[in-house]
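Propose amino acids for all 396 sites.
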Protein backbone atom coordinates (compact mmCIF):
# COMPACT_ATOMS: atom_id res chain seq x y z
CA UNK A 1 0.00 0.00 0.00
CA UNK A 2 1.33 3.44 -0.89
CA UNK A 3 1.60 5.82 2.08
CA UNK A 4 -0.67 8.92 2.30
CA UNK A 5 1.51 10.88 4.72
CA UNK A 6 5.28 10.63 4.92
CA UNK A 7 7.04 12.23 7.89
CA UNK A 8 10.73 13.06 7.48
CA UNK A 9 12.76 13.73 10.63
CA UNK A 10 15.80 15.94 9.97
CA UNK A 11 15.57 19.11 7.85
CA UNK A 12 18.95 19.00 6.17
CA UNK A 13 20.47 17.59 3.00
CA UNK A 14 19.21 13.99 3.17
CA UNK A 15 15.75 14.92 4.45
CA UNK A 16 15.13 17.65 1.88
CA UNK A 17 16.46 15.53 -0.98
CA UNK A 18 14.17 12.65 0.07
CA UNK A 19 11.16 14.98 -0.13
CA UNK A 20 12.28 16.23 -3.51
CA UNK A 21 12.78 12.68 -4.84
CA UNK A 22 9.40 11.52 -3.52
CA UNK A 23 7.67 14.27 -5.47
CA UNK A 24 9.71 13.58 -8.57
CA UNK A 25 8.73 9.91 -8.35
CA UNK A 26 5.06 10.93 -8.30
CA UNK A 27 4.18 10.83 -4.60
CA UNK A 28 1.10 13.02 -4.23
CA UNK A 29 0.37 12.51 -0.51
CA UNK A 30 1.23 14.82 2.38
CA UNK A 31 4.89 15.42 3.28
CA UNK A 32 6.11 16.86 6.57
CA UNK A 33 9.75 17.60 7.45
CA UNK A 34 10.54 18.11 11.13
CA UNK A 35 13.89 19.73 11.96
CA UNK A 36 15.32 20.78 15.30
CA UNK A 37 17.54 23.60 14.00
CA UNK A 38 16.01 27.08 13.99
CA UNK A 39 17.10 27.80 10.40
CA UNK A 40 15.57 26.89 7.08
CA UNK A 41 17.55 23.98 5.59
CA UNK A 42 21.06 24.95 4.46
CA UNK A 43 24.16 23.31 3.02
CA UNK A 44 26.98 22.40 5.41
CA UNK A 45 30.15 22.16 3.24
CA UNK A 46 30.59 25.96 2.90
CA UNK A 47 30.54 26.29 6.72
CA UNK A 48 34.19 25.24 6.96
CA UNK A 49 35.18 26.87 3.67
CA UNK A 50 33.70 29.97 1.96
CA UNK A 51 31.19 30.88 4.66
CA UNK A 52 33.83 30.70 7.40
CA UNK A 53 36.26 32.65 5.23
CA UNK A 54 33.64 35.33 4.58
CA UNK A 55 33.66 34.83 0.81
CA UNK A 56 30.24 33.18 0.72
CA UNK A 57 27.17 34.87 2.21
CA UNK A 58 24.31 33.38 4.19
CA UNK A 59 21.98 33.73 1.20
CA UNK A 60 24.38 31.52 -0.77
CA UNK A 61 23.97 28.52 1.54
CA UNK A 62 20.56 27.12 0.59
CA UNK A 63 20.22 23.54 -0.44
CA UNK A 64 19.18 22.60 -3.92
CA UNK A 65 16.27 23.07 -4.33
CA UNK A 66 16.49 26.43 -2.56
CA UNK A 67 14.43 26.40 0.61
CA UNK A 68 11.54 28.50 -0.76
CA UNK A 69 11.10 25.91 -3.50
CA UNK A 70 10.04 23.45 -0.84
CA UNK A 71 6.73 25.29 -0.84
CA UNK A 72 6.41 24.57 -4.54
CA UNK A 73 6.88 20.90 -3.67
CA UNK A 74 4.01 21.21 -1.20
CA UNK A 75 6.07 20.12 1.79
CA UNK A 76 5.35 21.31 5.30
CA UNK A 77 8.65 22.20 6.97
CA UNK A 78 8.56 22.54 10.75
CA UNK A 79 11.79 24.04 12.12
CA UNK A 80 13.01 24.43 15.69
CA UNK A 81 11.16 21.28 16.80
CA UNK A 82 12.82 17.94 17.62
CA UNK A 83 11.30 14.49 17.28
CA UNK A 84 11.55 13.00 20.76
CA UNK A 85 10.04 9.56 20.26
CA UNK A 86 8.19 7.31 17.87
CA UNK A 87 5.68 4.49 18.15
CA UNK A 88 6.28 2.48 15.00
CA UNK A 89 3.29 0.16 15.52
CA UNK A 90 0.84 3.05 16.02
CA UNK A 91 2.76 5.24 13.51
CA UNK A 92 2.91 8.26 15.76
CA UNK A 93 5.81 10.66 16.17
CA UNK A 94 6.10 12.76 19.33
CA UNK A 95 7.82 16.14 19.20
CA UNK A 96 9.54 18.46 21.65
CA UNK A 97 6.63 20.95 21.61
CA UNK A 98 4.35 18.28 23.08
CA UNK A 99 2.53 17.50 19.84
CA UNK A 100 2.16 14.25 17.93
CA UNK A 101 2.33 13.63 14.18
CA UNK A 102 0.63 10.63 12.61
CA UNK A 103 2.32 9.12 9.58
CA UNK A 104 2.03 6.20 7.18
CA UNK A 105 5.75 6.12 6.46
CA UNK A 106 8.78 7.56 8.22
CA UNK A 107 12.19 8.77 7.07
CA UNK A 108 15.06 9.02 9.58
CA UNK A 109 17.35 11.80 8.31
CA UNK A 110 18.75 13.04 11.62
CA UNK A 111 22.44 13.00 10.68
CA UNK A 112 25.17 13.31 13.27
CA UNK A 113 26.34 15.65 16.01
CA UNK A 114 29.80 16.54 17.29
CA UNK A 115 31.84 14.42 19.65
CA UNK A 116 33.26 16.46 22.53
CA UNK A 117 36.50 16.31 24.48
CA UNK A 118 36.19 14.93 28.03
CA UNK A 119 34.87 17.68 30.38
CA UNK A 120 37.80 17.19 32.78
CA UNK A 121 40.16 18.56 30.12
CA UNK A 122 38.30 21.89 30.02
CA UNK A 123 39.20 25.01 32.02
CA UNK A 124 36.74 27.21 33.90
CA UNK A 125 38.31 30.29 32.34
CA UNK A 126 40.34 30.28 29.18
CA UNK A 127 40.00 30.46 25.41
CA UNK A 128 36.67 29.31 23.97
CA UNK A 129 36.48 25.68 22.87
CA UNK A 130 34.27 25.46 19.78
CA UNK A 131 33.09 22.83 17.31
CA UNK A 132 31.72 23.14 13.78
CA UNK A 133 28.62 21.34 12.60
CA UNK A 134 25.87 23.92 12.26
CA UNK A 135 25.36 27.43 10.92
CA UNK A 136 25.20 28.67 14.52
CA UNK A 137 28.59 27.00 15.20
CA UNK A 138 30.10 28.74 12.15
CA UNK A 139 28.71 32.11 13.27
CA UNK A 140 30.29 31.59 16.68
CA UNK A 141 33.71 30.65 15.26
CA UNK A 142 34.00 33.18 12.45
CA UNK A 143 34.83 36.30 14.55
CA UNK A 144 37.87 34.55 16.06
CA UNK A 145 39.59 33.97 12.70
CA UNK A 146 41.43 37.29 12.50
CA UNK A 147 44.98 38.08 11.40
CA UNK A 148 47.53 36.96 13.99
CA UNK A 149 45.04 34.99 16.11
CA UNK A 150 46.38 31.74 17.60
CA UNK A 151 44.06 28.93 16.53
CA UNK A 152 44.56 25.43 17.91
CA UNK A 153 42.64 22.75 16.02
CA UNK A 154 42.16 19.35 17.66
CA UNK A 155 41.74 16.52 15.13
CA UNK A 156 43.28 16.42 11.65
CA UNK A 157 40.21 14.90 10.01
CA UNK A 158 38.09 16.81 7.50
CA UNK A 159 36.79 19.47 9.89
CA UNK A 160 40.23 20.01 11.40
CA UNK A 161 42.02 20.27 8.05
CA UNK A 162 39.44 22.57 6.48
CA UNK A 163 39.21 24.87 9.51
CA UNK A 164 43.01 25.06 9.79
CA UNK A 165 43.18 25.86 6.08
CA UNK A 166 40.57 28.63 6.32
CA UNK A 167 42.19 30.01 9.48
CA UNK A 168 45.64 30.07 7.91
CA UNK A 169 44.30 31.79 4.79
CA UNK A 170 42.74 34.41 7.10
CA UNK A 171 46.22 35.11 8.50
CA UNK A 172 45.84 33.17 11.74
CA UNK A 173 48.64 31.22 13.33
CA UNK A 174 47.12 27.73 13.16
CA UNK A 175 48.30 24.43 14.68
CA UNK A 176 46.66 21.03 14.31
CA UNK A 177 46.83 18.34 16.98
CA UNK A 178 46.13 14.76 15.82
CA UNK A 179 45.98 11.62 17.98
CA UNK A 180 47.01 9.25 15.19
CA UNK A 181 50.52 9.08 13.64
CA UNK A 182 49.12 10.05 10.22
CA UNK A 183 46.19 12.34 9.32
CA UNK A 184 43.25 10.97 7.29
CA UNK A 185 44.68 7.47 7.72
CA UNK A 186 41.27 5.84 8.18
CA UNK A 187 39.89 7.58 5.09
CA UNK A 188 42.85 7.37 2.68
CA UNK A 189 45.33 4.89 4.16
CA UNK A 190 48.77 5.66 5.57
CA UNK A 191 50.61 6.57 2.33
CA UNK A 192 48.05 9.02 0.94
CA UNK A 193 47.12 10.35 4.41
CA UNK A 194 50.77 11.29 4.95
CA UNK A 195 50.92 13.05 1.56
CA UNK A 196 47.74 15.03 2.28
CA UNK A 197 49.18 15.94 5.69
CA UNK A 198 51.93 17.79 3.82
CA UNK A 199 49.31 20.29 2.66
CA UNK A 200 49.35 21.69 6.24
CA UNK A 201 53.11 21.98 6.41
CA UNK A 202 53.30 23.61 2.97
CA UNK A 203 51.28 26.52 4.41
CA UNK A 204 53.35 26.65 7.61
CA UNK A 205 50.57 25.18 9.68
CA UNK A 206 52.11 23.02 12.41
CA UNK A 207 50.79 19.46 12.39
CA UNK A 208 51.46 17.62 15.65
CA UNK A 209 50.70 13.92 15.22
CA UNK A 210 50.66 11.21 17.95
CA UNK A 211 49.48 14.04 20.19
CA UNK A 212 46.30 14.80 22.10
CA UNK A 213 45.04 17.73 24.10
CA UNK A 214 45.66 17.03 27.81
CA UNK A 215 44.23 20.20 29.34
CA UNK A 216 42.85 23.58 28.39
CA UNK A 217 44.27 26.31 30.65
CA UNK A 218 43.85 30.08 30.98
CA UNK A 219 45.97 30.92 27.94
CA UNK A 220 45.83 27.91 25.66
CA UNK A 221 46.32 24.16 25.74
CA UNK A 222 48.68 21.70 27.34
CA UNK A 223 49.38 18.78 25.01
CA UNK A 224 50.00 15.11 25.86
CA UNK A 225 53.69 15.81 25.07
CA UNK A 226 53.79 18.48 27.81
CA UNK A 227 54.12 21.31 25.29
CA UNK A 228 52.00 24.43 25.82
CA UNK A 229 50.34 26.15 22.83
CA UNK A 230 48.90 29.65 23.21
CA UNK A 231 45.35 29.83 21.86
CA UNK A 232 42.78 32.55 21.25
CA UNK A 233 40.35 29.84 20.20
CA UNK A 234 40.36 26.03 20.21
CA UNK A 235 38.40 24.19 17.52
CA UNK A 236 37.58 20.54 18.14
CA UNK A 237 36.99 18.23 15.16
CA UNK A 238 37.26 14.74 16.61
CA UNK A 239 34.39 13.06 14.80
CA UNK A 240 30.64 12.75 15.20
CA UNK A 241 27.92 10.56 16.73
CA UNK A 242 24.69 9.55 14.95
CA UNK A 243 21.47 11.19 16.23
CA UNK A 244 19.37 8.14 17.11
CA UNK A 245 18.10 8.84 20.62
CA UNK A 246 14.59 9.71 19.38
CA UNK A 247 14.30 6.11 18.10
CA UNK A 248 15.42 4.48 21.35
CA UNK A 249 12.10 2.79 22.22
CA UNK A 250 11.55 1.27 18.78
CA UNK A 251 13.60 -1.91 19.18
CA UNK A 252 15.59 -1.02 16.06
CA UNK A 253 19.33 -1.74 15.96
CA UNK A 254 20.81 1.68 16.76
CA UNK A 255 24.41 0.68 17.33
CA UNK A 256 26.30 3.23 15.20
CA UNK A 257 23.32 4.69 13.35
CA UNK A 258 20.05 3.19 12.16
CA UNK A 259 20.64 -0.28 10.76
CA UNK A 260 18.82 -0.77 7.44
CA UNK A 261 18.58 -3.59 4.94
CA UNK A 262 20.27 -3.28 1.57
CA UNK A 263 17.35 -1.19 0.23
CA UNK A 264 17.68 1.34 3.13
CA UNK A 265 14.53 0.03 4.82
CA UNK A 266 14.90 0.04 8.62
CA UNK A 267 11.37 -1.22 9.43
CA UNK A 268 8.08 -1.70 7.61
CA UNK A 269 7.41 1.70 6.02
CA UNK A 270 10.51 3.30 7.49
CA UNK A 271 13.79 4.15 5.80
CA UNK A 272 16.96 5.91 6.94
CA UNK A 273 19.09 8.22 4.81
CA UNK A 274 22.31 10.23 4.92
CA UNK A 275 24.87 10.26 7.73
CA UNK A 276 22.59 8.39 10.16
CA UNK A 277 21.93 5.33 7.96
CA UNK A 278 24.01 2.15 8.30
CA UNK A 279 23.36 -0.41 5.62
CA UNK A 280 25.01 -3.36 3.88
CA UNK A 281 26.51 -2.07 0.65
CA UNK A 282 26.45 -5.30 -1.33
CA UNK A 283 29.03 -3.90 -3.76
CA UNK A 284 31.67 -4.04 -1.01
CA UNK A 285 30.23 -6.70 1.29
CA UNK A 286 30.45 -4.13 4.07
CA UNK A 287 27.87 -2.69 6.49
CA UNK A 288 28.75 0.93 7.26
CA UNK A 289 27.63 4.52 7.63
CA UNK A 290 29.03 7.13 5.27
CA UNK A 291 29.39 10.72 6.45
CA UNK A 292 29.65 12.58 3.16
CA UNK A 293 27.50 14.92 1.08
CA UNK A 294 27.10 12.75 -2.03
CA UNK A 295 25.96 9.76 0.02
CA UNK A 296 23.23 11.90 1.62
CA UNK A 297 21.97 12.83 -1.86
CA UNK A 298 22.20 9.34 -3.38
CA UNK A 299 20.71 7.56 -0.37
CA UNK A 300 17.79 10.02 -0.37
CA UNK A 301 17.03 9.23 -4.02
CA UNK A 302 17.23 5.51 -3.35
CA UNK A 303 15.21 5.48 -0.12
CA UNK A 304 12.40 7.49 -1.75
CA UNK A 305 12.08 4.76 -4.38
CA UNK A 306 12.15 2.07 -1.66
CA UNK A 307 9.32 3.80 0.22
CA UNK A 308 7.24 3.81 -2.94
CA UNK A 309 7.66 0.06 -3.41
CA UNK A 310 11.15 -0.32 -4.90
CA UNK A 311 13.25 -3.27 -3.87
CA UNK A 312 16.67 -2.60 -5.39
CA UNK A 313 19.78 -2.69 -3.20
CA UNK A 314 21.56 0.62 -2.60
CA UNK A 315 25.10 -0.14 -3.76
CA UNK A 316 26.81 3.16 -4.53
CA UNK A 317 30.45 3.84 -5.21
CA UNK A 318 31.04 6.47 -2.49
CA UNK A 319 32.52 9.86 -3.28
CA UNK A 320 33.78 12.79 -1.24
CA UNK A 321 35.75 15.94 -1.77
CA UNK A 322 37.58 18.22 0.63
CA UNK A 323 39.01 21.68 -0.06
CA UNK A 324 42.23 22.38 1.83
CA UNK A 325 44.81 25.12 1.28
CA UNK A 326 43.69 25.71 -2.30
CA UNK A 327 43.93 21.98 -3.13
CA UNK A 328 40.94 19.80 -3.93
CA UNK A 329 41.09 16.28 -2.52
CA UNK A 330 38.60 13.92 -4.19
CA UNK A 331 38.14 10.24 -3.49
CA UNK A 332 35.85 7.85 -5.36
CA UNK A 333 35.40 4.29 -4.12
CA UNK A 334 36.28 2.44 -0.94
CA UNK A 335 39.85 2.42 0.39
CA UNK A 336 39.28 0.00 3.31
CA UNK A 337 41.52 -3.05 3.18
CA UNK A 338 43.30 -2.19 -0.07
CA UNK A 339 46.40 -4.17 -1.15
CA UNK A 340 48.25 -1.44 -3.03
CA UNK A 341 47.98 2.27 -3.72
CA UNK A 342 49.89 3.64 -6.70
CA UNK A 343 50.48 7.21 -7.84
CA UNK A 344 49.76 7.02 -11.57
CA UNK A 345 49.84 10.65 -12.72
CA UNK A 346 51.04 14.05 -11.58
CA UNK A 347 53.63 14.66 -8.92
CA UNK A 348 53.60 14.05 -5.18
CA UNK A 349 56.31 16.74 -4.81
CA UNK A 350 53.85 19.32 -6.12
CA UNK A 351 50.96 17.71 -4.18
CA UNK A 352 49.05 17.45 -7.45
CA UNK A 353 48.56 13.80 -8.30
CA UNK A 354 46.23 10.91 -9.10
CA UNK A 355 46.46 7.63 -7.15
CA UNK A 356 44.65 4.35 -7.70
CA UNK A 357 43.87 1.71 -5.05
CA UNK A 358 43.99 -2.01 -5.85
CA UNK A 359 42.38 -4.88 -3.94
CA UNK A 360 43.11 -8.29 -5.43
CA UNK A 361 42.98 -7.67 -9.17
CA UNK A 362 40.29 -4.98 -9.01
CA UNK A 363 40.38 -1.20 -8.92
CA UNK A 364 38.61 -0.17 -5.67
CA UNK A 365 39.24 3.58 -5.40
CA UNK A 366 40.73 6.61 -7.10
CA UNK A 367 42.15 9.60 -5.24
CA UNK A 368 42.93 12.92 -6.83
CA UNK A 369 44.67 15.89 -5.29
CA UNK A 370 43.97 18.88 -7.54
CA UNK A 371 43.33 16.52 -10.48
CA UNK A 372 39.60 17.13 -10.86
CA UNK A 373 39.03 16.02 -14.44
CA UNK A 374 41.35 13.00 -14.24
CA UNK A 375 39.86 11.56 -11.04
CA UNK A 376 36.24 11.93 -12.14
CA UNK A 377 37.08 9.85 -15.23
CA UNK A 378 37.38 6.81 -12.92
CA UNK A 379 33.84 7.04 -11.57
CA UNK A 380 32.26 4.99 -14.33
CA UNK A 381 35.13 2.48 -14.28
CA UNK A 382 34.53 1.93 -10.56
CA UNK A 383 30.79 1.54 -11.16
CA UNK A 384 31.66 -1.05 -13.82
CA UNK A 385 33.96 -2.93 -11.36
CA UNK A 386 36.86 -2.67 -13.78
CA UNK A 387 40.03 -4.77 -13.35
CA UNK A 388 43.32 -3.24 -12.17
CA UNK A 389 44.94 -3.79 -15.55
CA UNK A 390 42.11 -2.04 -17.38
CA UNK A 391 42.21 0.79 -14.85
CA UNK A 392 45.93 1.33 -15.47
CA UNK A 393 45.24 1.37 -19.21
CA UNK A 394 42.70 4.16 -18.64
CA UNK A 395 45.15 6.49 -16.88
CA UNK A 396 45.14 9.74 -18.89
P1 LIG B 1 22.82 16.43 8.71
O1 LIG B 1 23.31 17.43 7.71
O2 LIG B 1 23.61 16.19 9.95
O3 LIG B 1 21.34 16.86 9.10
C1 LIG B 1 20.58 16.22 10.06
C2 LIG B 1 19.58 17.22 10.59
O4 LIG B 1 18.68 16.56 11.49
C3 LIG B 1 20.23 18.34 11.39
O5 LIG B 1 19.67 19.56 11.04
C4 LIG B 1 19.91 17.96 12.83
O6 LIG B 1 19.91 19.07 13.70
C5 LIG B 1 18.53 17.36 12.66
N1 LIG B 1 18.08 16.52 13.77
C6 LIG B 1 18.84 15.69 14.53
N2 LIG B 1 18.08 15.06 15.46
C7 LIG B 1 16.81 15.51 15.26
C8 LIG B 1 15.56 15.23 15.90
N3 LIG B 1 15.45 14.36 16.91
N4 LIG B 1 14.47 15.87 15.45
C9 LIG B 1 14.53 16.76 14.41
N5 LIG B 1 15.68 17.06 13.78
C10 LIG B 1 16.81 16.43 14.19
N6 LIG B 1 30.87 16.31 2.84
C11 LIG B 1 31.54 16.23 1.66
O7 LIG B 1 31.41 15.21 0.95
N7 LIG B 1 32.36 17.24 1.25
C12 LIG B 1 32.54 18.36 2.00
O8 LIG B 1 33.31 19.24 1.59
C13 LIG B 1 31.87 18.47 3.24
N8 LIG B 1 32.06 19.55 4.02
C14 LIG B 1 31.45 19.61 5.24
C15 LIG B 1 31.70 20.71 6.06
C16 LIG B 1 31.13 20.78 7.32
C17 LIG B 1 31.40 21.96 8.20
C18 LIG B 1 30.29 19.73 7.78
C19 LIG B 1 29.68 19.79 9.15
C20 LIG B 1 30.03 18.63 6.96
C21 LIG B 1 30.60 18.56 5.68
N9 LIG B 1 30.39 17.48 4.83
C22 LIG B 1 31.03 17.40 3.63
C23 LIG B 1 29.50 16.37 5.24
C24 LIG B 1 28.04 16.61 4.76
O9 LIG B 1 27.66 17.94 4.99
C25 LIG B 1 27.13 15.63 5.50
O10 LIG B 1 27.47 14.34 5.06
C26 LIG B 1 25.67 15.94 5.24
O11 LIG B 1 25.31 17.16 5.82
C27 LIG B 1 24.79 14.84 5.82
O12 LIG B 1 23.46 15.21 5.62
P2 LIG B 1 22.29 14.61 6.54
O13 LIG B 1 21.05 15.30 6.09
O14 LIG B 1 22.36 13.13 6.54
O15 LIG B 1 22.66 15.01 8.03
P1 LIG C 1 36.70 12.70 11.29
O1 LIG C 1 36.90 12.81 9.82
O2 LIG C 1 36.21 11.42 11.87
O3 LIG C 1 38.11 13.11 11.92
C1 LIG C 1 38.36 13.24 13.29
C2 LIG C 1 39.85 13.09 13.53
O4 LIG C 1 40.19 13.49 14.85
C3 LIG C 1 40.30 11.65 13.36
O5 LIG C 1 41.53 11.62 12.70
C4 LIG C 1 40.42 11.20 14.80
O6 LIG C 1 41.26 10.11 15.00
C5 LIG C 1 40.97 12.44 15.44
N1 LIG C 1 40.79 12.44 16.89
C6 LIG C 1 39.83 11.78 17.60
N2 LIG C 1 39.97 12.06 18.92
C7 LIG C 1 41.04 12.90 19.04
C8 LIG C 1 41.66 13.55 20.13
N3 LIG C 1 41.21 13.39 21.39
N4 LIG C 1 42.73 14.35 19.89
C9 LIG C 1 43.19 14.55 18.63
N5 LIG C 1 42.63 13.94 17.53
C10 LIG C 1 41.56 13.15 17.74
O7 LIG C 1 35.66 13.79 11.79
P2 LIG C 1 35.68 15.39 11.67
O8 LIG C 1 36.85 15.86 10.91
O9 LIG C 1 35.44 15.88 13.06
O10 LIG C 1 34.40 15.69 10.78
C11 LIG C 1 33.10 15.58 11.35
C12 LIG C 1 32.09 15.18 10.30
O11 LIG C 1 31.97 16.17 9.29
C13 LIG C 1 32.43 13.90 9.59
O12 LIG C 1 31.21 13.25 9.35
C14 LIG C 1 33.01 14.36 8.29
O13 LIG C 1 32.84 13.40 7.26
C15 LIG C 1 32.20 15.60 8.03
N6 LIG C 1 32.96 16.54 7.20
C16 LIG C 1 33.29 16.17 5.96
C17 LIG C 1 34.03 17.01 5.18
C18 LIG C 1 34.41 16.56 3.82
O14 LIG C 1 33.99 15.49 3.40
N7 LIG C 1 35.16 17.39 3.08
C19 LIG C 1 34.42 18.25 5.64
C20 LIG C 1 34.09 18.61 6.93
C21 LIG C 1 33.35 17.73 7.70
P3 LIG C 1 40.56 8.63 15.11
O15 LIG C 1 40.43 8.20 13.69
O16 LIG C 1 41.53 7.84 15.88
O17 LIG C 1 39.24 8.77 15.81
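Proposal:
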Amino acid sequence: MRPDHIAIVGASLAGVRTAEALRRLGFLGALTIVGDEPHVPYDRPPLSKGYLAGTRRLDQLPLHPPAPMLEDLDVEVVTGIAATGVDLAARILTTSDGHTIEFDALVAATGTRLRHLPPETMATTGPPVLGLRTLSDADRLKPFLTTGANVVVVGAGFIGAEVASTASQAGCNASVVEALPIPLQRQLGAEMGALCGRLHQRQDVRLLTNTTLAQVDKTGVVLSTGEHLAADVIVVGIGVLPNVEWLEDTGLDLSNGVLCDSTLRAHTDMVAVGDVARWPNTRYNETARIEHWTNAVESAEHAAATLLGGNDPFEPVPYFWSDQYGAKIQCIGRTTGYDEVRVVAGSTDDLKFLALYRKGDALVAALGVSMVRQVMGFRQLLLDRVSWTNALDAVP
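The mean pLDDT is 96. The longest helix spans residues 293-307.
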